[in-house]
Amino acid sequence: MDRTEIAIVGAGPAGLSAALEASRAGARVTIIDEYSRPGGQYFKQPPSSFKLLDRSLMGRDYQAGQELLSRISDGNITLMSGTLVWGAFSPDTLELYQEERGECLRLSSDRTIIATGAYDRPIAFPGWTLPGVITAGAAHSLVKSQFVLPGSRVLLAGSGPFQLPVASQLLKGGAQVVAVLEAGRVGGWVTRVPAIWRHLDKVNEAKDYLGAILKARVPYEFGWTVIEARGKDHVEDAVISQLDENYHPISGTERVLQVDTICLGFGFIPSLQLPRLLGCESAYDKGLSAWVTACDENQATSVQGVYVAGETTGIGGHDVAMCEGAVAGLRAASDIGKIGSDEAEDRLSKVRGNLKNHREFSSFLNRTFSLRPGIFELAREDTILCRCEEVTLGEVEGAAMECGGSIRTIKQLTRAGMGPCQGRICGSLVAQVATRISGNSIAEIAPDTPRPPIKPIPLGALAKLAL
Ligand SMILES: Cc1cc2nc3c(=O)[nH]c(=O)nc-3n(C[C@H](O)[C@H](O)[C@H](O)COP(=O)(O)OP(=O)(O)OC[C@H]3O[C@@H](n4cnc5c(N)ncnc54)[C@H](O)[C@@H]3O)c2cc1C
After folding, report:
1. Cα(9) to centroid of ligand 1, in Å?
2. Does residue 33 have its Cβ closer than 6 Å to ligand 1?
3. Cys staple from 268: which of 118, 379, 448, 457, with CB 3.0 to 4.6 Å?
4. Whether the model pTM is above 0.70
5. What's the CATH superfamily of 124-265?
6. CB-CB contact of 55 with 45 (8 Å)
């Protein structure tokens, strides 16, 4: 078993920032990330085999990521890339799988910081499992780090500001963006941006993306979404509809667009698998319509010795993730005696102020683009909700009626959530059905409990660990 003082899961903005602060305080730090290169989603790096001829094409997040990553080469930080944390049975030991060596190993630590980020929120509607229907995050990652376009005639549908950078990056890559559909309405929110002068950088960023979209004459429609994808082996048509206030389609407004790709950008859901596996409490965030890992102002969870930072605690963007990472890194280092509590707080005084500002802006965005019930009711009886186990809406509804809406029993009756994704894709969809059938609010329905391995690993590697 390997040993470190502070183990950090996730080399995104939150994990990297936690590592820098903890190592600056004198702690020996190990960061583990399943991707082959550090940076997470925001600072995503192209594969090391790619030769970059023109760095200026890579955008501002790439440049900022380069600077951050160059500071990581500090002697106190060990980076284990290409390494998945597939389980954790006690707060001081992580179960790892190293892809290149095809081996499982263990890492023990005095403190653990979980910074595993988020994933795209799925929305189910007829045809959503057809090839060509992908998430906006996936499309962005493809263009941003692999320089591959997901298709040539692309429709974006979703809610929230993330659609803008995706559309602008697709245009830059040469795709024809047929339309960007925003489920929300403009309403009066434009004038309610909190203390705009404190968030000018974000407003300017959005302006740049919007400028690119408008310049390319891409229609940007508010109060519209995709309600069906049609095609034989691949998406060929997208049926779109205007939405009422509760995001139910308005009958008679349907239009058909010819596309080969539909990107769904309905926001993100915090990744809770590891914290929940360790028994950390979760809390339901109503504005976000999602469960988050609960933590105190020092990023400490309900489990002694386990901290969380970044989007596992709620969707706040990379600035919030970096501030939370700094807090978690310094408080964990202080916990093991590397730095006094007062000195840690001194170092954090500016960070805490910035964190407050960034959270103010992100909670404004989460409230503004909060999803309404109709968006969760687009699926039909034969629409698949659980892709891994091919379980339909009708089957989930039947099970929910039989058991009164218990997520655990729905899982046992239908196998929804038991496949390789362990409920990451279908969990929130099944929870919506359970609330609709049982009449309980989603906050009353405990989120599903993941089981290890939280992501697939070869059985041979597990078997070797037991020998
Ligand atoms: C697909 C996707 C694309 C996004 N693209 C953008 C973008 O371009 N611009 C933007 O502003 N925001 C983007 N976001 C939002 C983004 O998540 C945040 O802005 C920011 O990156 C959050 O930082 P984080 O450190 O909390 O998480 P992340 O950046 O997501 O980092 C989490 C890291 O944890 C690792 N990890 C997770 N689970 C495990 C495990 N079990 N074992 C080992 N490693 C693990 C992941 O590989 C990842 O590197 C994207 C989100 C997603 C889901």
Report:
1. 12
2. yes
3. 118
4. yes
5. FAD/NAD(P)-binding domain (3.50.50.60)
6. no
pLDDT of 309 over the 90 cut? yes
Residue nearest to ligand 1 atom 1, measured at CA: 137
Contact 242, 224 (CB under 8 A): yes
DSSP assigned state of 48: T
The terminus-to-terminus CA distance of the chain in angstroms comes to: 14
- Enter the tokens of residue 289: 């319509």
- The pLDDT of residue 124 is 98
Confidence at residue 56, expressed as pLDDT on a 0 to 100 scale: 66
The token duo for 410 is 């729905």
The one-character DSSP state at 15 is: H
CB atoms within 10 A of CB 215: 10
Whole-Å CA distances, 335 to 216, 280, 355, 434, 455: 53, 18, 21, 41, 31
Among 17, 41, 104, name the best residue to mutate to test ligand 1's pocket (greatest count of ligand atoms within 8 A of Cβ). Answer: 41
* 194-217 pLDDT, tens digit each: 666 677 787 888 888 999 999 999
What residue spans of 369-458 are helical by DSSP H? 393-403, 407-414, 427-438
What is the average pLDDT score of the chain?
Answer: 92
- Residue 104 in contact with ligand 1 by CB distance below 6 A: no
Classify residue 278 by its DSSP letter: T
Band (pLDDT 50/70/90 cuts) for residue 187 is low
How remote is the CA of residue 117 from the centroid of ligand 1, in Å? 5
Cβ of residue 311 lying under 6 Å from some atom of ligand 1: yes
Is the predicted pLDDT of residue 235 greater than 90, yes or no?
yes
**What is the predicted pLDDT for the residue at 432?**
92
Cα 181 from chain centroid (whole Å) = 21
Residue 460: what pLDDT?
93
Higher local confidence (pLDDT), 283 or 145: 283
Residue at token pair 């990451």? 424
Residue 328 pLDDT > 80: yes
Architecture of domain 2-119+270-366: 3-Layer(bba) Sandwich (3.50)
d(CA 319, CA 453): 31
Q: Is the pLDDT of residue 438 over 80?
A: yes
Alpha carbon distance 416, 124 (integer Å): 14
* Distance from C-alpha of 125 to C-alpha of 154, rounded to nearest angstrom: 18
147 within 8 A of 41, measured Cβ to Cβ: no
Q: Is 376 in the pocket of ligand 1 (CB under 6 A)?
A: no
Residue with the smallest CA separation from ligand 1 atom 12 is: 42
Q: Choose which CATH entry (3.90.950.20, 3.30.1130.10, 1.10.10.1100, 3.30.70.890) describes domain 375-444.
A: 1.10.10.1100
